[in-house]
Structures are given as C-alpha cells and as structure tokens.
Amino acid sequence: ETIRHHGNKSDTVCLIDSNVSENGIKVLSSAFTHVVRVSLHEHECNMPRWERFKELYAWLPACFTKLACLRLHPYNKVLFFDADMICLGVVDHAFALNAPAGVMMTRKNAGLPHGSPVPERDLRMSLKGSYGMSGACWLLEPSEEDHKAMLASVDGYGSDKYGDRVLCAGPDEQLVSLHYMNKRAPDAPFTPWTNIGRVFNCVSWQKGDVECGKLRLLDMPRSGPGAQVPQPMPASPSRYSIGEDGTATLLPRTEGETGMDAEEESRERAVRVLHYVTEKPWNADPAAPSREKKQLWPDYKIWYESLERIKAVLGDDASLATPAVVDGAAGVPILPTSWAEDQFVTQADADKAFGKTPNKKTFSNRPRDSFRGRSNNRGRGSGRTPYGGGGTMRGGFRGGDRGSSRGWAAGRERNGEGNQFMPRSPVAKKKFS
C-alpha cells in the first residue's frame, strides 16, 4: 500500500503460502496488484551465532521460500522486499540498476555507494561479520535455472543442517550472496552484484544517522583493479524521470555541474524503505489500555497510518468479493491467486500463460570454491517465514497462524519482443499491464 501511496508505478506482487485465509487474500488483494500462492520450501538451518535469538527465528527453516520471486517470469526484473518493511518514498528508479543487486550490509558504516559494483573481498568480509547481500532487499532477474540451482544446493545437504558456522549472515543471505558471486569471471575484482544504497533497507534507529551523513560510505579503491569503478548511479529521484509506463531514465547533469548541491545531497540520503527487524508494529495495539499496549514509536505510526488507509478502502469486510480464480492456461494477463507450485512450474508454462514467447536463454553456473572449500553446489541457505497479517521473510513475525505473506515484490514486464530475458539490462522496460 505504501508503494502506491508514494507514487511508484511498478506492479506489486505479494507471495503467500497455503496458511493464508481467503479473507486474508481479499485484504492483500486490495493493496497489491497480484497475490501469488507458493509452496513452502523448508530445510533445517545451522545458525549457532543466532542461538540467543532462537525464539525470534523459528521461521528460519522456511526462509528459502522467498526464492519463489525468481519464478515471476512475466517480469524482467523483480525488486524483492521482506514483508516487515514499509515504503517511505520512490523506489521505482532501483530498476535502472544492473541485476543482481542488493544492499551489502556492514556494521559500522553505510556500505558502498548506490550503483557501485561489489568487490569480492568486501562481500566475503560482510558475510563473515555482517549479513552479506541483505536478504531483505534484492533486485533479481527471474530465472527458473537459478531458482532450481539454489534449492538444489540447499537440498544437497540432506539431513545435515544448512549454513556455515563461520559466517554471521543468515542462510538465505549466504545462499543468494554466494550463488551470484560465484558467477563472476575468473580473477575478476568485482562480483556480478551491484550495490543498492542503504536508504532502501534501513532500520529505524539508524535512519537519522543515514540521512544526516553520519554513517559514511565505504571508500572505493582508487588504484589497482578497482580503479575502473563506474560512476555510481544516484539514488535521488531528482536524477530520474519516471515515465507513465514506469520506465526510469537517468537525467544528464547540466553543463558545468560537477556535483550535488546540499538540497540534492539531502534528497539522495532520504531513506526510502524502513525495516522492522525487531519488534513489529502489528504486535502493538494502539486501542489497548495504556498499561497493556506497547509504545508506539514514530516508525510504528507510519505503519498504522497505512493500515487506516487500507481500512478506508475496504470498508465492511463482509462486502469483500472473493478474488477471481484464474486458470493458468487461460492466457489472462494477470498473476492468478490460485496457482499451486505444481502449476507454476516452468518458465515456458508461465510465459505461455501470459501470452509470451518462451525464454530461450540458458545459464551456465560454474560453481567455485567457497569459504570452506565447498562448491556452491552444496548451497548456502536462504530465507523463510511464518507470520500472520503483514508477515516478514526475515523478521520472524508470528502473528497467530504459521504463515502469511512471505514478502512483497515490485516487478517490470518482459518486453515481449523475443528477447524477453535481458541480462544486466540498464533500464527496466515497460510496465506490466
């Protein structure tokens, strides 16, 4: 809801599992363009560093379910967010980045500049000391091959728990970070990853530090192989023109302009997405007696404002119509809410259902040695969720039932001109309609 509220034009897709009720689907359908049901993919995870947070991460074995976003084949790019996040501004321009892209997390600073390539050394250090490419925000190109390869890596552990004991990153972050990192060219200083600015994944207590510039960016190397770093693309919407079809176009600087002025720099640092990583606003009841309700922090109020807007649209729950069930073979150009995992199987099937030409692009995944001598074929975890109502892939919200929305994603349509899969496309194509 907050994506639309702030003027973003991309489609929004909510991934859910079978634990979401029909009424829940009705509510979600009022806030998302499409609601897609996917199957849980679970595997026990070995995360000894998180033992003290064990109760908060009971959902961790199912974190790999979020990889279903790689199966949204009607789109050439998908911007995935955990469901315990809330949009504060324009995010459409993130589609202009090369995929895969994500927020490389660091402990003491704001990470790399927005749009910068991610060096292998920095990513490995981030996986050991922080969270690698954060599992809360990814820009990926849908790929049946990547989806199958990563799940096969997880399942390859058999009865063993998944996850490297040495790493701090979560199992979903280990798996996805290393899967794409291992696609790099031999001896290349940079991974295929592009960094998304920290403003797309910021916790509330760091929001002020990010926006005032207290959290500094990592310095990019100025000599050696890293000297060829391209100019980072600015995160500020003022540098982009967003067309009616949702296409983001980078605007040129005026003659003689050498950098950002104070106003533009302030806009550049404005946080776009907040992440509720600890307590969740939906667990606080603003109507409860003061002694019982949790304190409503300012970032909680943003969530409740969004909830009130949804209520205003829905009105009486009893008047909600059941979302139409669409046969995946009917060629109707929407994402059906009723497709089971065995129906949403191959890219060719999905493309056929959307009236698209099947994608002929193939992938070569050459596994390379990873942290502890294992090949990437052995896998390295991914994310899960059992939450209710608003849910979260990584936040561990347990709102009653064992499941609910697994995360939300914004997508762009394939161009439908034969070259439907556009690896590392610099600009997202027209909006899916």
UniProtKB/TrEMBL annotation:
InterPro entries named among the record's database cross-references: GNT1/Glycosyltrans_8, Nucleotide-diphossugar_trans
Protein name per UniProt: Uncharacterized protein
Organism for this UniProt entry: Kipferlia bialata
Residue ranges, compositional bias (Gly residues): 380-398
Region Disordered: start-end pairs: 223-266, 350-433
Domain of life: Eukaryota
